[in-house]
Amino acid sequence: MKNFIHLKGVGKNFGDFVAVDDVDLTVAQGELFCILGGSGCGKTTLLRMLAGFEIPTTGTIEIDGVDITQQPPYDRPVNMMFQSFALFPHMSVARNIAYGLRKEGVTKPEISKRVDAMLELVQLADFGKRKPEQLSGGQRQRVALARALIKRPKVLLLDEPLAALDKKLRERTQFELINIQYELGITFIVVTHDQEEAMTLATRIAVMDKGRFQQVGTPKEVYEFPSNKFVANFIGTINTFDGIVTKVLDDQIEVYSDEAGTSLRALGKQLVEVSQKIEIAVRPEKIFISKEKPKDSDDVCIQGTVDDLGYLGNRSLYRIRLESGKIVQVSSQNRRRSITRFLEWEDNVWISWRASSAVILLD
């Protein structure tokens, strides 16, 4: 895939407030790219600059080799799908979808042909004559998507597109959105605060905080190899241990942690030095829990007590209190059917993980 969208040194100030701070980004043609971040991080401002609703204070924006930084929205090869869907309540589904084509003066036969094709694509072929109020939330979302796509933009911008849907409908619609994007081959840029949504939808994710990209990568790269403490804590759940580097080996480092009460190991891609203070982090699902001490001497093993637990159906969550008072969260898959618990409160247990499961976190 060729590089299609280029942001070079893009920034946006509102008075003294810096909303977007010197952002560089390249997005490939046909990519489904997600900008992920919390409220106020600058993600929607960045999307509005791509749409032309805001003009950058600094930097340039290019799409398909053309500088569009100063172009008005109606001259850009982009369309935007808003969080509220913004459907016209007095118009039928078909007329809502056709609105943009009618404004451009496209002929009626061509409009009819393209509307029918869009209704088929979003699986609403039998709903063209209905009004938006007669549709479910998921169906209205698909009408808004069809209306945004019918003008055949080079880029579709989606601002929290699934936020108005309930959890199960949102999960189902995510895959529908992926299939539509794959079938059309249009570049999608999605803004969301929902981590699971970004992980499910995206070919790549940009994690944003305070107007800057903290990390850009595939969902697996961002989750398994966070670049810093912010990304590690923002994406999913993670356990961290403060420590001091005691050994730097060829393939891993060793860190002594008072919180853990023992030495921890991690694969060390970063350049660290003996006596340096760092954090070692490990995800809850990477940790094994047992009543007996594991026999594998290569694993990190720590003894603790079950402080709290929760049953979530497919998995159980345990909060293990170490001798130092440190709480470690462990997620364990419930592979067997049972009405009795594997562990109870105050049980003495061992938690363990492989060195390859831990990551080094630097500022």
Structure description:
By secondary structure, the protein is of the alpha+beta class. The protein has two domains: 3-233, 3-Layer(aba) Sandwich (Rossmann fold); 237-361, OB fold (Dihydrolipoamide Acetyltransferase, E2P) (Beta Barrel), CATH 2.40.50.140. Helix content is 23%, strand content 36%. It is built from eight helices and 20 strands. It has helices at 43-51, 93-103, 108-121, 137-149, 167-184, 195-201, 219-224, 229-234, and strands at residues 3-14, 17-28, 32-37, 58-63, 66-67, 78-81, 155-159, 187-192, 204-209, 212-217, 239-248, 253-257, 262-266, 277-282, 288-290, 300-311, 315-322, 327-333, 348-353, 358-361. A hairpin with a 2-residue loop joins strand 9 (204-209) and strand 10 (212-217). It is globular. The model has no long low-confidence stretch (mean pLDDT 89).
Question: Might you state the CATH topology name of the largest domain?
Answer: Rossmann fold
Fraction of residues in β-strands:
35-45%
Sheet with most strands: strand arrangement: 6-7-8-3-9-10
CATH superfamily of the largest domain: P-loop containing nucleotide triphosphate hydrolases
Q: In which range does the helix fraction lie?
A: 10-25%
Number of helical segments?
A: 8
Strand runs, count: 20
Tertiary shape: globular
State the domain count: 2
Biggest sheet record: 6 strands, mixed
